[in-house]
From TrEMBL:
Its cofactor is Mn(2+). Residues 65-349 form the Amidohydrolase-related domain. It comes from Candidatus Limivivens merdigallinarum. This is Adenine deaminase. Residues 397-561 form the Adenine deaminase C-terminal domain. It holds the Pfam family Adenine_deam_C. It catalyses: adenine + H2O + H(+) = hypoxanthine + NH4(+). Keywords: Hydrolase, Manganese. One of its GO terms (biological process) is adenine catabolic process. Belongs to the metallo-dependent hydrolases superfamily. Adenine deaminase family. HAMAP family: Adenine_deamin. InterPro entries: Adenine_deam (IPR006679), Adenine_deam_C (IPR026912), Amidohydro-rel (IPR006680), Metal-dep_hydrolase_composite (IPR011059), Metal_Hydrolase (IPR032466). Its EC number is 3.5.4.2. It comes from the Bacteria.
Length: 568
């Protein structure tokens, strides 16, 4: 868009009244760290002046603060459980005007059709939505996902106007081993100057260095300050994640404060965040508020949510309240508390009106195809009591692998307060593949949980201690074609259907929020510890690119040693 026009010049020079002027604001300048008493002149969706201006229309801010619209540097829209138009309408009124979206959840279920659906939906939204082409579908070659996307498929995607870069490169071994398929994907985007997102987290210095040489620019998997600094020293931009299950902000920000580290290489993201948490806590506004509460200079926190992200992703014209920048603004009643008064997108005040969603293609509504052998599959005969155990960690998505003596009765695994059954059913192609494991840390007694949200291949996961409840939970999700369900022994399932690819729903967010809240309470009443979000945590138990151990359709997978263990 050409903003260097005669009319805009007249607005900037004060020769003509601008169409809209926000009067008497306190403008935060991300370039100088100043807060300046000034008016903000707007025209054609852009900022045309900061200073003293008159407008055809004026809004008096009464000394309120004006900051750039917030930017989420990495998120999976599907993880909110809502169709994209609903999610963005809620995050937008909470200040987030720009979204860097990786639709690899949809891609793993429905391939390019899933990505096209996400893009078509986001086109209806009054927000800046950029899409990263999913790089690892499936996340690793042995996974049983609903689709595969190769380098040849990505060549065509590069011409799609919404595609900004390459999504998180989860198959790190393929990068470190210079595998042909991965090298082709990286080359496609690197040679065109596109940003490539990473997925390292706990890499050592040399592994991180090689990822940077491959063209990887960002990482959102760092859980500690030390991990973040190993990456940042190699020129990798750190996206500090604060989602529903993975909450890494406190550890990293405390390290920044303790060591006096520059924030220039840090931004904020949500990655995976449920709608219930967004409604209660906020979106990127929550990241800013939490960082400030830990002692970070508010000006640095706002820059991490705006200009740092814009610079990382080469989004010129976004991330600042300055002439020539897009008029995406957040007006605040309180700078330190991130108390939002109003939000502007392209110079128009956001009203929270929900755009009309696009039509959902029929194949995306019929994606659960399980070849279920019957309740006997849950019996789990054991030859010995010593078995591989997957242990969840509250507040994290990493797990611990241990070998423990588990209860055995009549030659079968007997769940206890400590150990529960964990099964994964392939749900895309009806192969009949079932992976069996033993879970520690959920403490379910007298019931079961099940989900078709299981990163990243999104097969059907069931956890429980009662075979009849587990059988009922599995059958329920086949019946509704995907979702979450919780079954208390002897009762009917409590279910949140996720009819779109088994990942999302078009049901109004208020209903989703209420139902999810009740289901989480029900799961906690079954024994799941209060510090664990049962469904988000369960969804990551199948992701074989995160330490230390995961459940797959082929059994228990040790992500460090790249080997399987069988529960038998």
């Amino acid at each position: 868009m050409n903003i260097y026009t005669k009319s805009n010049a007249e607005y900037t020079l004060g020769k003509k009244k601008a169409p809209l002027v926000l009067k008497n604001g306190r403008v935060f300048n991300v370039f100088t760290n100043e807060i300046i008493r000034a008016d903000v002149a707007l025209a054609d969706g852009m900022i045309v002046g900061i200073g003293e201006y008159e407008g055809e229309r004026e809004e008096n801010l009464d000394g309120r603060y004006v900051v750039p619209g917030f930017m989420d540097a990495h998120l999976h829209l599907e993880s909110t459980l809502l169709n994209p138009t609903q999610l963005i309408s809620q995050a937008l009124i909470r200040g987030t005007t720009t979204y860097i979206v990786d639709p690899h959840e949809a891609a793993n279920v429905s391939g390019l059709d899933g990505i096209r659906y996400i893009i078509e939906e986001t086109r209806q939204c009054r927000a800046n939505v950029y899409v990263m082409a999913p790089s690892c579908v499936p996340s690793v070659p042995f996974e049983k996902s609903g689709a595969r996307i190769e380098a040849e498929d990505m060549e065509g995607m590069l011409s799609w106007p919404e595609i900004l870069g390459l999504g998180e490169v989860m198959d790190v071994p393929a990068v470190l081993n210079l595998e042909d398929g991965m090298m082709k994907k990286l080359s496609l985007f690197r040679e065109r100057g596109r940003v490539i997102d990473g997925h390292g987290g706990s890499l050592d210095e040399r592994e991180s260095a090689l990822c940077r040489m491959a063209g990887i620019r960002t990482d959102h998997e760092c859980t500690t300050y030390e991990d973040a600094m190993r990456e940042a020293r190699n020129g990798i931009h750190i996206l500090i994640r604060e989602g529903t299950a993975a909450r890494n902000l406190t550890a990293i920000v405390r390290g920044i404060l303790e060591h006096g580290t520059s924030t220039d290489s840090f931004s904020f993201c949500t990655d995976d965040k449920h709608i219930e948490d967004i409604i209660r806590d906020g979106h990127i506004s929550h990241n800013i508020r939490k960082a400030i509460s830990l002692g970070l200079d508010p000006r640095e926190a706002y820059k991490m949510a705006t200009i740092h992200t814009a610079r990382c992703y080469h989004l010129d014209g976004l991330g600042a309240v300055a002439p020539g920048y897009q008029a995406d603004l957040v007006v605040l009643d309180d700078f330190e508390k991130v108390a939002i008064h109003s939000v502007y997108y392209r110079g128009e005040r956001v009203q929270g009106i929900l755009p009309k969603p696009c039509r959902i293609p029929k194949p995306l509504l019929n994606t659960v195809h399980v070849d279920y052998p019957g309740i006997e599959v849950f019996r789990m005969p054991l030859e010995t009591g010593r078995q591989p155990v997957i242990e969840v960690q509250p507040g994290e998505i990493v797990t611990k692998l241990s070998f423990e003596d588990v209860p055995v009765e009549n030659g079968r695994f007997a769940p206890s307060d400590t150990h529960q059954k964990l099964l994964l059913f392939e749900r895309h192609h009806g192969t009949g593949m079932v992976g069996k494991g033993i879970l520690k840390g959920f403490s379910i007694r007298g019931g079961a949980l099940a989900s078709t949200v299981g990163h990243d291949s999104h097969n059907l996961i069931v956890i429980g201690d009662d075979d009849e409840s587990m059988d009922r939970a599995l059958r329920e999700l086949i019946r509704v074609q995907g979702g979450y369900t919780v079954v208390k022994k002897g009762t009917e399932p409590m279910t949140l259907p996720l009819e779109i690819m088994g990942l999302m729903t078009a049901v109004p967010y208020q209903d989703v929020q209420k139902r999810l809240k009740k289901m989480i309470e029900e799961a906690h009443s079954l024994g799941v510890p209060s510090g664990i979000d049962p469904f988000i945590t369960m969804s990551f138990l199948a992701l074989p690119v995160i330490p230390e151990v995961r459940i797959t359709s082929m059994g228990v997978y040790d992500t460090k040693q790249s080997c399987w263990y069988q529960v038998k």
